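PT: before anyone asks, these are the final sequences, not the draft ones from last week. 438 residues across everything. Please model them as a single complex and drop the result in this thread when it's through.
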Amino acid sequence: MILANNISCKRGNRYIFKNLDFKIEDGIATIISGKNGSGKTSLLRIVADLLDPKNGSIIWKGKSIYKNIEEYHKQITFIADKNCSKENLTVIENMKFWKNLYKSSINYENFIQLLNNINLEYMKNEQVYKLSTGQKRKLELTRLIIEERHIWILDEPFLGLDQETITTISQTISDHLKQNGSVIFCSHIPVSLLNKRYIDLDLYEAT
Amino acid sequence: MKQLKKNIFNFLKSILSISFRDIKIQIRNISYILSIIIFFIIVILLFIFAIGPDQELLKIYIIPIMWSILILSSCITFNKLLKDDYDDGNFNLYQFTGLSFELIAISKIITSWILFQLPLLILMPLIAILMNVDTDKIISLIITMAIGSPILSTLSLISSSMMLTNSKNLSLGSLIIIPMSIPVIIFSIGAINNDINLFMPQVNILLSILFATIALGPWIISICIKIAIKN
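LR: through. Structure below.
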């Protein structure tokens, strides 16, 4: 479980949100909602330790994450709004790179199965620049499985995806939650998940 | 012991996968490396035309000219490897692998040297032979370049890491590389052109610059990357 204790975020001279407390429980999806500019991405980056909060701290396993930062990092899969696949590499080459980087136990057959599930198998040997926006996003989301991490932090994961893939990814998130994983994400697209909790950032808007 | 071996193997696998991927990407985008080689040759030709047909003058000046152009080439390539990874969010990926950014910086320095300095390192002695430069000087050139070019790669990556969040004024990067390269060019050209007795002392100074750069460079690069990520 991750606890956010009295978090405030300041960008430039402006506070985006102030005094935010919430918890990310294992097995329950935490969904961040709010209007544009309310600080959804900033909050996700704070939870992922990619941005320092102005005040407050993130508590994991009863301690501040900075007390055990390396171990905390090793638990996280962070899918940003930008795709980090390399355009000059093929779909499979990108997946192999992620596997080697994260020392994953996934093998080639799993890759094919994974690509089949999201209708991307026929593009497996194509370079990423030939993929459409939605297909690039699908490839990015394969990292959820490849990296084999406990905490999933997702920034607009469904952006540009078709309904069929949204259902598949929602199912993947549900399966992860069933295995007691932690998921926090922001999305403007409604998602059908059984165990979910909302954080409405509009309520914490700094005045 | 087995666990330690496995950890070291996994760790090397992760680092090498970054290097191999970078090399593969740049080879697929070969026009970028070719443009640096062509830039190098064209600027040398420019100097040759400017100096005129005097072979003796060319023999004297061609090595300092080539060294200067090598530094200018570093200024062109400085922004490639780190900036690409920063822009597409790959540094976030690295952060969650547990690999230290210092080691990633070392991997990037080696990759940058292989991709952007090694082709010029092969080309320079060939051009020196074409210009009828003495064999002794060509050997000295190869030795000084072998020591000097990793320094240039490290400096260009330091400069690149400082420029990660700056996408507007890229010429600022060259302003960091060029002044820091001055000692390298002084001692390299000194070692090649001066008396044979002064060769080793100057090479030793170059080596000390190399070790200092390699020792400090990855830490500076890593700190700059960490600052850029949290920006």
